[in-house]
Design brief:
By secondary structure, this protein is α+β, with helices and mostly antiparallel strands. The protein has 3 helices and 6 strands, in the order H-E-H-E-H-E-E-E-E. The chain has one domain: Alpha-Beta Plaits (2-Layer Sandwich). Strand 4 and strand 5 form a beta hairpin. The chain is globular, with a radius of gyration of 15 Å.
């Protein structure tokens, strides 16, 4: 699996911003099939930082309706990355 396909986008919410400031943790949407080792390698290679830990969570897509048509949002996976003290990722680029 290519590292550019593992990390899809950062999650920028109020809760993620607080975790970034207080605990040096960053949150990303990642590929559903990626494991923690692959996620760690991808983050370290993409951002040139040292990852201390990776926590993941799988989310099932919710059922949605548009009038009489029913559908489902995609399943997705979230990774919370803790970096070594003194390092940071600049997400504004």
């Amino acid at each position: 699996m290519d590292i550019r396909n593992i990390v899809k986008k950062p999650i920028v919410t109020e809760k993620a911003s607080i975790a970034k400031e207080k605990e040096n943790k960053y949150t990303f949407v990642v590929d559903k099939d990626a494991n923690k080792y692959q996620i760690k390698q991808a983050i370290e290679e993409m951002f040139n930082v040292k990852v201390v830990s990776v926590h993941t969570a799988n989310f099932g897509g919710k059922a949605k309706r548009m009038g009489m048509h029913e559908g489902k949002k995609s399943d997705w996976k979230k990774a919370i990355i803790k970096l070594k003290d003194g390092q940071e990722i600049n997400l504004e680029d």
